[in-house]
Amino acid sequence: MRHSLPYLIVLCFFFQGCQNKPNEEVAKSTLATQIKELNDIQPNRDNMDSLMAVWHALDDRAVKGKDTVQSTDIKYNLARLYAMKKSDSSQYYVEQALELIEPTSGNLKQKALIYNGMGNIWAEKAKEHQAGYYYNKAASIVLSDTAVPLSLDAKGIMLLSAAQSNRNLFQYDLARKMHEAAMPITDSLPAGHLYKQRVLVQSIQLMALDNTPADTMKIYLDKLDKLHHENQMSYDISFYYECKAKYFDRIKQFDSLYYYQAKKNQIDEQRFEFSAINSASVNTMFISYVNMAATAVSLKQPAQAWEAFKKAGQIMKEYEDLIDTNNLILYQRNLASLYQLQGNSELAFTLMNGVYKLQRDFYQSKNNQAIAEMNALYQIQAKERSIRALNDDIAINKLQLQKNKLLLTITILTVVLLIGGMFFLYYFFQQRKVRQEKEKILLQQQLLRTQMEPHFIFNTLAAVQSFVRLDRKEIAIKYLNRFSRLLRSSLELSREKEVPLDEEIEALENYMSLQQMRFEDAFVYELNIPDEQDLGAIMIPPMLIQPYVENAVLHGVDFNDRTGRIVIDMEIHKDVLEVTITDTGKQQEHKVNAHRSLSGAISQERIMLLGKKAKVTSGTTEGGRGTKIVLLIPVVYA
């Protein structure tokens, strides 16, 4: 901070020296260099006043030089500095910049920045339609021309601001389009960047309003979950809890909804206690309590609902002038639901009448504001049409000069297209070759799974036959009931290329319980899974572990002394699942029968088809009596 001030002083003297140079082109080049160097200095509380003084000096020089782009850049930077100081002068300078740059052709970078700045000005004044108009103009430049020399940060914030504005104006399709365009940009930003979280949070918030199917919502929630897992300290956990709550609200799991609302509420309370009192902080805390109360009503827990309403009412009493009317409507509607839950229909009806009147007045006020904003937009658009007409006249005069350039451009484009076409054909054939190899491996995997399913079903039906032969009907019925659930799960899993690890574990537990019943509790088993992982997001090939567990049951347990034990341990190492299966062994050695050999051979082939990271090893336990199998299975994350 201290080193920038002397630099600025020297720069000021340098500016004064440059003013004496007679050569106008040299002066413009020097001014451009100085603007670039100033842009590299990050403003802060210590150097803010010095920076503004230098920018004002540059503004005077740019006016004398009459360079439109340079004047625009300077006025935009002055507007940005005044905005940081919360000064109304920011609007004055950004409007001056807009008047300078709007009539020009090209200059898309400057136009996009100034449109976005105008959007910020109107958003700060709660003029939603005017803000949306300028946000969308900035975003349309980003969408229409990928070569605009804007940073990824600038492109990301323009698209996200436009998306949020369109959402507030109920333009959900347009907001979704902005989110989709922002996704690849935010993916290119460094790990821990704020916009990586913001694009996912805004998308989930939009889906909650637009009644998007829960499955689609879950995809974005899983991405947000992974983002927070990889960079826990970089992102605001409050938004994560909010998105979790919106998902569980969509699927009507009110217990989970209340849990995440409570987690978010704890953070909101801490921030509210230490933050400055303003409209945003008051409304965030108020609506947090209202949402918790509404969920408690859905769970039919009036005591918890009253507690939340009491806290919301206290905030409303202390900061009534700061609370948005829309939030107040939501408060009264949910309070009426609580009275209805407690059987006080008369008071609930009275409250709903009040809600109706409040909504009517609120929407009337919003309509009047929208009409006023639309009139202002009409004036803005009329002015822009006049400017465009003037530009058209200028363009006609330049058309003759462009004819000669057109032929050269067409020639260059033709050559580029031919070269691009050749590269495309080469890339296409390479990709088709890779795709054919992948399909071949997939078909081999499916064939091997098809060979294993009859083996699994045959063993299970043999056990049922044994129970029936021994006239143990109740056990046979119970066994068949569990087997039907396992078979249904097995058939569902076998149709997929990859399945979530938690579903594979559930099928494995069902299988082990069936085997315990089959052998009349002649052994016990233990299944250890990683608790800290989201097992639903980890995908593995189906029914790959079960054959090894089956061999452990049939060939690694002594059914005579009934003290057998099988332990299955699972650990995740980045993109590899390590599964360790140990058994206690038998008193006497037995030859591996042909059935077991076939199962082992098929499983070994499936493992080999999974790639270099896949592996299976076997050995004996420390006592030398039991067997230890270690599987390394590559995983992918959903």
Number of strands: 8
Number of helices: 21
β content, as a range?
A: 5-15%
Backbone CA Rg: 34 Å
**Unreliable parts:** 1-21, 590-597
Amino-to-carboxy terminus distance: 45 Å
User: Biggest β-sheet, characterized?
Assistant: 5 strands, mixed
Approximate shape: globular
Q: What is the element string, with H for helices and E for strands?
A: HHHHHHHHHHHHHHHHHHEHEEHEEHEEE
Strand adjacency order, main sheet: 2-4-5-7-6
Q: In terms of structural class, how would the helical and strand content be classed?
A: alpha+beta
- Helix fraction bin: over 70%
Mean pLDDT across all residues, rounded? 82
Q: What does this entry show, briefly?
A:
The chain crosses the membrane at residues 406-429. This is Histidine kinase. This protein has 638 residues and is an alpha+beta fold.
Describe the structure.
The structure is a single chain. With 638 residues, this protein is of the alpha+beta class. Helix content is 72%, strand content 7%. The protein is built from 21 helices and 8 strands. The strands form 2 sheets. A 5-stranded mixed beta sheet has the order 2-4-5-7-6, covered by helices on one side.
